[in-house]
Design goal:
The structure is a homodimer. The first copy, chain A, is α/β, with parallel strands linked by helices. In chain A, 42% of the residues lie in helices and 18% in strands. The first copy, chain A, has helices spanning 13-20, 24-32, 39-52, 58-63, 81-96, 110-122, 139-146, 170-183, 198-215, 230-242, 255-268, 301-316; strands spanning 68-75, 100-105, 125-130, 151-154, 164-168, 188-194, 220-226, 249-252, 277-281, 295-298, 325-328, 331-333. In chain A, strand 8 (249-252), helix 11 and strand 9 form a beta-alpha-beta unit. The longest helix of chain A is centred in the middle third of the chain and has 18 residues, at 198-215. The relative contact order of chain A is 0.11. Chains A and B meet through helix 4, helix 5, strand 2, helix 6 and helix 11 of A and helix 4, helix 5, strand 2, helix 6 and helix 11 of B. The structure holds a DNA duplex.
Chain lengths: 353, 353
DNA sequence: CAACTGCGAAAAATCGATTTACTCATTTCG
DNA sequence: CGAAATGAGTAAATCGATTTTTCGCAGTTG
């Protein structure tokens, strides 16, 4: 079908129009599926389209409308399974509705987050799915508000007075973790996390603590929250263990913390679960193949993505009303890294099941 | 500065023009940094831009030029560290040159890969960075060729007669792995991988085998290559071990294979490195915190991205000449998962260092 | 003093669609 | 039978820039 059009200009709607012997407006209508076109003309258009290999230029098509058929997605990073899956899901959902997803990474920087958002605004995107670096009160959300953009906030958010929010039900999941750990007899538990992401970390911590204390007021819960980056967390943790503290279980409020905990256990020669138990928020593929397999809270990526897109498109189509704050339930996967406290000789024996 | 323009139409170049008392063409020139504008007029334009909060609409700006300032990136998936890092790097490099990166996932499907590419073509992207699902001979590359698109192929490619290619020097890295394993005394090694991605897997396998046999012609190298998906690989591996085969080391040609190997070791209660050694192609953050830490070949993501973008932009700017095929050197990280053959009692003892 | 050169800016064409307004026919109905 | 309604299609305006062409005016030159 396509012979000579190798590297030439692509056919435009006018090329199709003249070949079909109709006006460009008619071609536009046929492409849009309008029914008020004589079927003979429609056929001529189809033939011309086929012959020329014509496809609508989505950018040109978007020029006339105020909201372009583009959805912006801003994630704190692309390197983790969680956000990778999220982008994949969002992309699919956008495509389903004939939109293109343009994803950008804020690289864990609020300054960059705002810059990227401004660029999305320049592009006149119809809507934005923003996973803020910190929480819903950052400069990016303020920018969206000030410029009347439509958007949904996800992941590191709880609720907002201007935008719909969707996130994992961190508090409930954390409570479930607490139930399990306390139920197994753990009475001295260390919780670690990064405090920057105030919204979610707070929820996870509070959810965990409330439930643990409800079950047994005498449970001792230590907390190490580092600001900003992961390195201070590592050294705080090192100090903590160095002082001789020996909790029987550690609950990490985020993936990076789980890695830090594991590497500290390593340094000290501690094995899970005999020497210490470990549960992490956020699952990853490798966690089920290591020895021991690492217990983790699985976030409902697909549900979050689906709900976010539903809400976003409803707003794009003009839905009014106060913003909603959705929490999607997590699953807690108890794996071998969790055991009874004092389940084995410290720093000895094997860690096999 | 911005008071009332909350949700109204954004200011266009004409709004700026009339406020500055000049024509739209003059505004355009000022924004483009053309020097043939009287400085007084330029100042008036700057003031108007400032006052109105004007920003160029990149989409409208791109309409007139044949090549739009957009780079398309097509990755087989977004869920892995490798491609996540790759997209992040590519995004940064595109931005540096004033381009927008639009990334899409082909979800390991050649059909989808071509579809996505066609959509990029509709967008009139200036260039494409394509990481093919299989290799350089797939339908997507053919589509690019047939439509005169400019692009670079990366990762699962060796060389091409139409496009520049950039990938990790898999063969050299594999040879290095062979040197280490054979040097440590391993004489029965299993290599596992997925055959679909012919280009790279072939290179990795050949590089490994050639070097191993060069060092000792009596080395026994078994190979399990599964087609298409990871599940057949798992069952082949299970059969292989089930038949009583006991290589002293396994070299996985790709990340998913490493996970499969680990989980099979798990099932059988084998520990690295005492029961069996393991090296995987492709590094991941978790590999250094598990017990044992997993030896891996680290791909030079940044170099691949940088080189790919350099080549791509050179072509976009009209550079002629035959396509080049670059190989970027990898690093091999020997970690605890590799030890001397028969380094410990089988299925017994600890796996500590 | 008429013709020429240049500079800087404005007017108009362009990119590739969509959408509005308008023109003919042909029906429908009072 | 004539007026209004409907149907099918087109020309032109529009979206927001960029780029080409044209123009006015000042200063030179023959």
């Amino acid at each position: 079908m396509a012979h000579k059009e190798a590297k030439q200009r692509r056919p435009s709607i006018h090329d199709v129009a003249s070949r079909a012997g109709v006006s460009a407006a008619t071609v536009s209508k046929v492409m849009a599926g309008v029914t008020t076109v004589k079927s003979e003309n429609a056929q001529r258009v189809f033939d011309a389209v086929e012959h020329l290999g014509y496809r609508v230029d989505p950018l040109a098509s978007d020029m006339r409308r105020a909201k372009r058929r583009i959805i912006g997605a801003i994630m704190p990073e692309f390197e983790s399974e969680f956000f990778g899956q999220m982008v994949t899901e969002l992309e699919g959902l956008a495509e389903q509705r004939g939109y293109t997803l343009v994803a950008a990474s804020s690289r864990e920087s609020e300054a960059r987050e705002k810059e990227v958002l401004a660029r999305m605004h320049d592009w006149r995107v119809a809507g934005v799915v923003l996973a803020p670096v910190r929480n819903e009160h950052g400069p990016a959300a303020a920018f969206m508000k000030a410029n009347g953009m439509t958007g949904v906030l996800i992941d590191r958010v709880l609720s907002d007075d201007a935008f719909d929010t969707v996130s994992a039900d961190s508090a409930a999941a954390s409570a479930e973790v607490a139930t399990m750990l306390v139920g197994m007899g753990h009475r001295h538990i260390l919780v670690i996390g990064l405090a920057e992401q105030a919204a979610t970390v707070r929820a996870r911590l509070d959810g965990f603590r409330a439930q643990a204390l409800a079950l047994d007021p005498l449970v001792r819960i230590d907390v190490i929250l580092s600001e900003v980056s992961v390195d201070p967390l590592r050294s705080s943790l090192r100090d903590y263990f160095g002082k001789g503290e020996r909790p029987t279980a550690v609950y990490s409020l985020l993936l990076k913390g789980t890695l830090v905990a594991l590497s500290e256990f390593r340094r000290r020669g501690w094995h899970c679960p005999n020497d210490i138990s470990l549960v992490g928020f956020d699952d990853a593929e490798w966690m089920q193949v290591t020895w021991p397999a690492i217990a983790a809270v699985v976030q409902p990526v697909r549900q979050i993505a689906t709900e976010a897109m539903n809400l976003l498109f409803a707003r794009i189509e003009g839905e009014e009303g106060p913003p909603t704050a959705r929490l999607e339930p997590c699953r807690v996967l108890m794996r071998e890294s969790v055991g009874l406290p004092g389940g084995g000789p410290h720093s000895g024996g094997g860690d096999r099941q």
